[in-house]
Every structure is written in C-alpha cells, then in structure tokens.
Amino acid sequence: MPVKLGIIGYGGMARWHHKNASKIDGVDVIAAYDIDARMVKEAEENGLRGYRALNEFLADKDINTVLVATPNHVHKELAIAAMDAGKNVIVEKPVALSVAELDEMIAASEKNHVLFTVHQNRRWDRDYRIMRKAVEDGLLGDVYTIESRVHGCGGTMYGWRAYKKYGGGMLYDWGVHLIDQILYMMPSKVESVYARLFSIVNPDVDDYFKVLLNFGSGLTAQIEVGTMCLESLPRWFVCGNRGALHIDDFEAKSGSITSLNKLADEVPAEVIDTPSGPTRLFAPRPEDATDHLELPEVNVSWTEFYENVRDVIDGKAELIVKPSEVRYTMSVIEAAFKSHETGQAVKMKY
Ligand code: NAD
After folding, report:
1. Using CA positions, which residue lies closest to atom 8 of ligand 1?
2. Which of 12, 116, 141, 223 could form a disulfide with 211 if both were Cys (CB 3.0 to 4.6 A apart)?
3. Of 29-43, 68-82, 106-120, 275-289, minimum mean pLDDT range
C-alpha cells in the first residue's frame, strides 16, 4: 500500500519533505493543513489538497499517514489527534518537549494500532555512517572518546526557534540529532550526563551547549553545538587506543584516520625540544610507526527512512526509528537540561 502523506504545518521543512519524499517509489504527498492561510495557498499552488481546518484534514480518507512538521510545542497534541483519527504518524524532531509528552504519544499509537515514528534523518548522514563504520570495523582499536560537533556563525535564531515556549533552542534542534546518532550506535547505556548550556546571542534559549555522555563501557561522548563560533573544529574527532579519526564536514569530503602499525611498539618515541623545554609524550610518532588510512566507504541514502515507513505499513519490515529509541534520546535530553540547572552530573535511571 503506498504511503499517502498529509502534512500538518506547511513551512520550510514540510516543503523539503514534499519535494524529496514525492520522488520515492510508493510515497505520494497529497495534502497539507496549516493554521496560516498563506501556507495553505502555497501548498495548493504546489499541487496539494489544502486544508484550513484540522478536522476536515483528518477526515480525508485518502490520507493514511500524517507528517507533523509544525513548531515543536504542538507536536504532541497534533500527533495524538492524527493517531486518534486512525492515521499513521511521522513526527518531525524533536518528537516532543519531554518524556511525559512522548509517553502520551506512544500510548495513543498503541491504543489506535497505528505506526508512530520520528524523522531522525541524520541517522543517514554520510559523515556519521563513515565514523560509525571506522569504529565498528575496529580501525581505531578500543574507542574511548568521541567528539561530535557542529559549529556555525549565523548567531541569531529566527522565528519560533528563538523562544523557549515554542520548544526553541539548540539542544532540541540539533542536540536531538547528535545525541540520537551516538545512542543509536552504542551497545552500552549512558550512565550519567553532564551539560552546560549558554545563551550567547539568543536570550531566551540555548544557542551553545556542551553535553558529556558517560557510557557504562567507560567511553565518553562529547556533543557540542555552537551557533556563534567564527572558527570551527571538525565535525567528528574520535580516539581509540590504536588510532584516531577526524572528519571535517557533513559530506566527509575531508578527513583522515591515523593508526599505529606493527612497528609502533618497536620504534622508540624521540624527545623533541619545544621553545620552553623538552617533551617525549607530545612529540610526533616516528613516520614509519603509523599508517594513514582513507576514510571507509559507505553506501547510504536518506530515502531509506520513507521506504522503511512504507514497508512497515505493508508488514514487510521492522521500524528503523523506534519509539523506544526516541524515548531514550528524550530522556538523555531531559537529563542534560537538569544537569545544566543543578550544575551536577545526572545519573540515568532505567
Ligand atoms: P516553519 O516555521 O518553517 O514551519 C512551521 C509551519 O507550521 C508554519 O507554516 C506554521 O504556520 C505551521 N503551524 C504552526 N502551528 C501550527 C498548528 N498548530 N497547526 C498547523 N500548522 C501550524 O518551521 P520548520 O523549520 O519547517 O520546522 C518544523 C518542524 O520541522 C520542527 O519540528 C523542526 O524541528 C523540524 N525540522 C526538522 C529538520 C530535520 O532535518 N529533521 C530540519 C528543519 C526543521
């Protein structure tokens, strides 16, 4: 059965879904509802059935799946209304503003026996998949630290994103992607979370944050987002006991892996002189003790998100972005907000 998609909130992200999901076999975008009449008109001009009333949109029997692409503070009520109308539901990230809100949404999906998932599209980012493959293939040895960052210099956040009451701020906006990426690849659970949030140019919300996730395995992941950083560090920096990786950008156009080779234990490190004194530990490794590897190849396409939704509706596949995983990410985000408020690391409870 094709996905017959109706969109709630025909703004920037909805137009992206309209354009890109329409190209996927078995996915038809057919309708949109928005509280803003100008957006409904735009949807109609782009070939969709436009609705100005939610009840009329939800009564459209041709729509079997609803995408909620509104500001974050109304995701819960709109998703539940759609599920109560018998529709499968995809919600844009962040799914909701708290674990409690999400639990109500999960309960609605179970009560109505409908699909419920979240557009965690950055699970399909090329840079992320390459980093993950390097770690999982053991190219770095035992990994003890992962740093994931996005640095930009735009500064001012626009529209609803700049206000807490609409679910604005970077922890909800990019934090939810970057935390999801890390949790989705880790076999071990987060034991504690420490976070610092800042409002550098946007007074009502966080526009710079650092979150430290401490895993049961001993690994630490640092996640950092800054909207006012006029210099930037690599997208990924990962260290293991036999190698290290950096990737500079989303496309992984530049980056590298350096690993120790068999000679590493035999070739002694040399002492070098710095302007104020000698050091051995911080001298470069002799060239013949290390190998420089290409980043591994990955074959990845975001379209798998919608193909999976289509196949789950047809009973042919298991859901990729599971509500339980989204709940885990949301509980880590809650812990990060709590850590910032208390100044303490927050222990996770399972
Ligand atoms: P936007 O402001 O461009 O569009 C939001 C639209 O929702 C507007 O047209 C607005 O009129 C409409 N709207 C507001 N309240 C409504 C309501 N109660 N009922 C119906 N319509 C309503 O915002 P955006 O940038 O498109 O973001 C929308 C969602 O998409 C957010 O949750 C955001 O986090 C998410 N998003 C996800 C990604 C991603 O990569 N996954 C990227 C950008 C945005």
Report:
1. 11
2. 223
3. 275-289
